[in-house]
Amino acid sequence: MAFACIESAKVNYKMVTTMKKLALLLAMGSFALAIPNAPAFATIETPEAKEAASDAAYEARQDMYEVFGDKDLKPGQYVWRDAKGAGDPRVVISLGEQMAYLYRGDTLVAAATISTGTEGRRTPTGIFPILEKKRMHHSRKYDNAPMPFMQRIDQYGIALHAGYNPGRPASHGCIRLPAQFAAKLYGVTDVGSTVMIGA
């Protein structure tokens, strides 16, 4: 009896997840249709996109438990497995947990601790494409600060990059990653890859 309940819960969870993904795709399509000549890579910061990104962050934490076990990473740590998931790479960010997750299609490949924006310099939430990649970049805004393995996600300079990772928000809005994780992530993603940032 207990086994049947667990299996039923798994089926319901998968169905809800699939419905949310369909709703997100429809929202993304209607967003693009609502803007004449929308760029191929457009950020989506609607309430629906922010909710979808937060849902993805919650699901990513559950996936991490299933894939890597009940493991809490210390600041600057990450886990990475050699899984060959089918599909495009997708990064999911959880601001509340200060974690980043890498997927290939629906397969969780890696997870890492991060450091995001502080009060007054918050990291934006929603769905973003990677707009630009540079192996070594220096900030134009903040004293030429180095941003190794930079992957920019908006027009204001917010990016994923290697940097100091104290396990709490400490950046000017960027998403700082452990150095080795940032290098590996840089090698997997492309311009146009999706980054979902949830609260």
For the structure shown, list the relevant keywords.
disordered N terminus; alpha+beta; 10 strands; L,D-transpeptidase catalytic domain-like; 4-stranded mixed β-sheet; 3 helices; 6-stranded mixed β-sheet; 199 residues
Q: Tell me about the biggest sheet?
A: 6 strands, mixed
The strands making up the biggest β-sheet line up spatially as 1-4-3-2-10-5
Any idea how many domains? 1
The averaged pLDDT comes out at: 81
Q: Can you tell me the overall shape?
A: globular
Order of helices and strands: HHEEEEEEEEEHE
Give the N-to-C terminal Cα separation.
Answer: 37 Å
Tell me the structural class. Answer: alpha+beta
Strand content: 25-35%
> What proportion of the residues is helical, as a percent range?
25-40%
CATH class: Mainly Beta
Q: The CATH topology, please?
A: L,D-transpeptidase catalytic domain-like
Outline the low-pLDDT stretches.
Answer: 1-39
Number of extended strands: 10
Task: Walk me through the structure.
Strand 3 (99-104) and strand 4 form a beta hairpin. The protein is built from three helices and ten strands. With 199 residues, the protein is of the alpha+beta class. A six-stranded mixed beta sheet has the order 1-4-3-2-10-5. It has a four-stranded mixed beta sheet with strand order 6-7-8-9, covered by helices on one side.
Summarize the entry for a quick read:
This protein has 199 residues and is of the alpha+beta class.
Would you spell out the secondary-structure blueprint of this structure?
Blueprint: H1 2-34, H2 47-68, E1 78-80, E2 89-94, E3 99-104, E4 107-113, E5 126-129, E6 132-138, E7 146-152, E8 159-162, E9 175-177, H3 179-188, E10 194-198
